[in-house]
Amino acid sequence: MRRPLTNWHAQAQEKLTPGERAADRLRNGMGSSPFVSAFIAAMLIWFVLNSLDSAWDPYPFILLNLFLSMLAGLQGAILLIAAKRQDTIAAALARHDFETNVAAKQEIEELMAINRAQLALLGELSANRAADRDGQVALPPFPSAASLSR
């Protein structure tokens, strides 16, 4: 079973739907330090601007709480979509790894069969050579099959 080497990840990336691509981008963006830094900066600016006399969202910050609740709800849904995709990717990678391992095992078994056949041929050559030495110049013997298999 000969299989060409392929980049599984590149092939999987080509099959993504626009929604899956968007979920991946949002997940990667929300988990980054620039997002966290920008989020903290926006919160500080909100606090400072609403601590002044002309505040549009005074101290209990009800509007801010509404926005944060909506953001948390959206983030939860996006992260669930991304987690579901990661599970799908992990399952596909496991299947790909299994298929690769099966192919490698078959190739190793083929190579071991070839190796055993070569060792048997070397043993026969060594035995024939020892039998033909009666009147010829003695040459060093071939190594035995047992010594080569180590």
Structure characterization notes:
Helices cover 75% and strands 0% of the residues. The two termini are 28 Å apart. The mean pLDDT is 83. The protein is built from five helices and no strands. It has 150 residues and is mainly α. The protein has helices spanning 8-14, 18-30, 33-51, 62-131, 145-148.
Residue fraction in strands: under 5%
**How many beta-strand segments?**
0
In round numbers, the mean pLDDT is: 83
Order of SSEs, N→C? HHHHH
Specify the overall morphology.
rod-shaped
Unreliable spans: none
Task: Work out the oligomeric state of the chains in this entry.
Answer: single chain
Based on helices, strands and strand pairing, what is the structural class?
mainly alpha
What is the share of helical residues?
over 70%
Which tags fit this structure?
150 residues, mainly alpha
Write the layout of secondary structure elements.
Blueprint: H1 8-14, H2 18-30, H3 33-51, H4 62-131, H5 145-148
Helix pairs in contact: 2-4
What's this model, at a glance?
The protein is mostly helical and 150 residues long.
